[in-house]
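Quick one - first record:
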Amino acid sequence: MAAMDKSEGRSTSERFSHPRLDQLFENRIEADKGAQYAKYLHLDLSTLSPYVSGPNSVKVATPLVELEAQSIKINKAYLLSCTNARASDLAAAAKVFRDAAKDNNDQIPKIANGVEFYIAAASLPEQKIAEEQGDWQVMIEAGAQPLPAGCGPCIGLEPGLLEPGQVGISATNRNFKGRMGSPQAEAYLASPEVVAASALNGTISGPGWYEQPKGWSGVVRGEGDGTREEDRMIDAEEALQKIIGQLDSMVQVAEQTFGTGDKPIEEPVAVTDVYPGFPERVEGEIIFCDADNINTDGIYPGKFTYQDNLPVEKMAEVCMSNYDPDFSSIAREGDILVSGYSFGVGSSREQAATAILAKKIPLVVAGSFGNIFSRNSINNALMSLEVPRLVRRLRETFSDKPASTDKDEITEPVGNKEEQQSLDSPSPASPAPQVKKLSRRTGWKLVWDVKKSQIEVQEGPNGQKWTEKVGELPPNVQEIIAKGGLEKWVQTEIQSSA
């Protein structure tokens, strides 16, 4: 049945007919002439290959053909959870085994030795459809282990979790370090077909129908329009616009560098109203977690998410443990946690905020935050600020410093597995390995003046002191935080209106 558009009462097929598409192509939406762009990007679609994300990051993506060449052995494969476990996804995976049966005397082949293949439909109705079509039975015959519909290993729930040193490939939507089991395991993400083929072959593989593009040497992409300068032909108008754009850019840079020549006008400091019960000042020592994209699994491991009766003390103990197992012993009550950019990306779980509060850290500062984390912070009374300048200063000061042997600080070796093995038993003549602190006590102090909407940073006892304007925190948001979060705010409103 075709999908229906409720706003127009027409099916998708009716709205996107060939005549309608022709009309759209004839009347293309185009930018105004002379429009200036921050950046041009190009991508040659003919060079695309299926991609696999990982290990342990959705942001690291590699063409399948490159991973196939590496013969990466897997221990576990997953086709389950709420993502990519619909009946159509299960059918796509089952087709991989059906196609392979044609070269196996029409017998469904078994998954590779040493591989565990777990399947779970997104819901019971989806599983029923897969069973009626025979797709479910095909994968069971191949050796798949069925799990209940819904959440499972994807969120860190038994059975089937990755163990230390294991490699897994999953058709779920997230593969953050430690989310599907041990932080010492590696998790990749791929399509249902690639997951099924990998389970069948024992290495990260594509399905039988996949063929590498002829003459393929990599995906062609980059900045610009993909045309080499020596091959470029532009008309007089385009050349003029290019020159104008270059001049505009030069003027903008000059203004930023030298100013306009006018004396700066000192503006009066705007005063923000502070809601009764909300602190006028928040201050503490900075503990620096020098990484971007620290996700909610890194902040609060998924395996604890559904343990509603977990004591506050245990939440504090496991806070940031998937990012840094020793964070709990390094951080102290009243610290201000500072991290890089996109802090709190990933799953929507309120415990990512409440675990930080359980650790008695009142304020998190980052270059930027994931939208979900920002919303959950307010809802659960955790204060947060975006201060990119502070992140830059901390990295300028600490990123290149070697790690000390202070037990209060955790270090992590840099390099590949072979380098790591050599570090386990270094020779006396070998130089000390380069290491990076995951969590660092900085000795810096930060004071957030809520009324003035600014922070003051003291860079150590003898370092420089500077101030920076920050976003104003509206009184209505202050009220939610002051009352202990959105739930308690709602309770108060209900009681006051009763």
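second record:
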Amino acid sequence: MNKQAFYPFEIKYQETDWFLFIMAVDNSKNISRWYFGGIASMQAACCTHPLDLLKVHLQTAGAEKTSLLKTTVNIVKNQGVLALYSGLSASLLRQLTYSTTRFGIYDTAKKYVSPNGEHISFFQRVGMAAGAGFCGGIVGTPGDMINVRMQNDIKLPIDQRRNYKHAIDGLIQVARSEGIFKLFNGAEWAASRAVLVTVGQLCFYDVIKAKLLDTPYFEDNLTLHFTSSLGAGTIATMMTQPLDVLKTRAMNAKPGEFNGALGLVTFTAKQGPQAFFKGFIPAFVRLGPHTILTFIFLEQLRLNFGVNPLAIQ
């Protein structure tokens, strides 16, 4: 347990030419630095990457029937346990670009709208989260595409594998062989999904957290952070699953495989409505823990290394 949950105040000293000020600073009021979201998301990705890999395998399975357990057993049996971490470098690159951008924009926007702690309405939060998510989705598309390809590589025949050594190698190979614009293949799906997932995660986390703090049962501690992030992760998964399926298929598609976005939607729809929710269970299992871990790490970064607006600098 963080010591600040029990000792939320510390003594600060500030000396001037005339006086020595002694003040108590409330650490529980620390605010995040703009880049904390990216760091927290990368930490969470290290824990949840195997679940993300399984989700990608299920979403790109096509018409064949498979399951989370069957997919896991096949990967471990044929490739080994470490294969569950295939593409980890790309996953970290994606979080470094995607999550740093969306968290940074959202937090900066909140500070602009509410510089002195003024109330922020729900619709203002939705608008800020949507804009931040859109920007993050575009910036993170190259890393996201390499992530999908590296995770999907291990189930392809040896002669069809792309064999990227790491995320940067993947970016270079795609730019050289397919053109730099190919790195943004599926950007429309990534941006659309990012809008929904950012609203579901960041906006609803803030809303749920604020509502729980209004009750006498919660304080700004690990229990609050866990409960709020669990609710936000559940909402985000429900909102984003269909777009997540389309985004994954678009990024993994061969050149000319689908005739634009409409062709991809039509192809997926022909497999039945359930095709839009392929991998829903691993998506929830992955996004739920990822959301929880991200906000727990983020809150710990805020409490321990955040900026205190009351402190004298």
